[in-house]
Amino acid sequence: LFYYQNYMQKIGLFYGTSTGSTAQAAKKIQSYLGAENVDIFNIQSATKKDIEKYKNLIFGTSSWGIGDLQEDWANFAPQFNDINLEGKTVALYGLGDQETYFDSFVDAMGKLYKIVQHRGATIVGEWSKVGYDFAASEALKDSETFVGLALDEDNQSELSNRRIERWAENLKAYFK
Ligand SMILES: Cc1cc2nc3c(=O)[nH]c(=O)nc-3n(C[C@H](O)[C@H](O)[C@H](O)COP(=O)(O)O)c2cc1C
Q: Could you list the pLDDT tens digit for every one of the 176 residues in the chain?
């Protein structure tokens, strides 16, 4: 039994991307958590069953329009009505552009948060807003904290690796 104390249960990582940035972040998250621990799915071709297989989940979305879910997540979202996430642990990450979309920065991550919370998941992986500069975000759970990891490849790509590394390190405690 002791052998398994630090064993991480497999994580299903589901992302939606329109220009590839959220997919690239998925690969980095996978490498920091250990390739053997994370299965990656593009939500464009994923099914309800793919999600149901995992106790531990990571969902990643970029924001489009004014704070909309990435298109493939928007198409998938109605299926959550038939997915029970009780007993599951979910971490969220969101990509956005805090300069151009300073009033809707990573809003889609906030939309995903509400969906997942409504389906009964335990949500982990909150993230401090220190180091970002924006006016408003639907992805804040309080005045200081995002519901998940916020990444900005448009303005702060040089910070992403370190952010992902620290966030992944925090997650290890929850994904056992
Ligand atoms: C037309 C358009 C609308 C966007 N809307 C938002 C937005 O409301 N909030 C935000 O934070 N980022 C917004 N973005 C920025 C993207 O989310 C960002 O570039 C992201 O890295 C794209 O990731 P993807 O390639 O995985 O889809 C928008 C970008 C474009 C081109």
A: 455 555 678 999 999 999 999 999 999 999 999 999 999 999 999 999 999 999 999 999 999 999 999 999 999 999 999 999 999 999 999 999 999 999 999 999 999 999 999 999 999 999 999 999 999 999 999 999 999 999 999 999 999 999 999 999 999 999 98
What predicted TM-score, i.e. pTM, was given to this entire model?
Answer: 0.96
Which atom of ligand 1 is nearest the CA belonging to 18?
A: 27
Q: How many CA atoms lie within 13 A of 172 on its CB side?
A: 14
Query: Best mutation site among 63, 103, 112 for ligand 1, i.e. most ligand atoms within 8 A of its Cβ?
Result: 63
- Using alpha carbons, list the distances in angstroms from residue 172 to 38, 112, 156, 167: 12, 22, 25, 9
- Long-range (24+ apart) CB contacts under 8 A made by 79-83 are 79/48, 80/115, 80/116, 80/118, 80/119, 82/48, 83/48, 83/51, 83/52, 83/119
